[in-house]
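README: folding subset

This subset contains proteins for which both the sequence and a predicted structure token string are available. Records are stored as plain text. Below is the entry for Protein RSI-1 (97 residues), shown exactly as it appears on disk.
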Amino acid sequence: MAARSYTSTSSLLLVFAIVIMVTLSNVAEGYNRLRPQDCKPRCTYRCSATSHKKPCMLYCLKCCAKCLCVPPGTYGNKQTCPCYNVWKTKEGRPKCP
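--- output ---
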């Protein structure tokens, strides 16, 4: 009877651990997701270091509206927003700044 209790306790702990892992992965996945009204301030910062602010803002806002994500910083870090990183122009260059 003691072996059965140990097995059920182990199973319960395993299920609990899996639920915690799934919850944490969903939190990490949603970390960069923005609401549409959050796009403008994020894009303003993202485009602050470029000399081409108008086109940068145009494409950043389009990308943010589609992906609900803007990479941190003023350049690079696109791997933090998979959709933002994958969207390309007809020529195959990155669409999002």
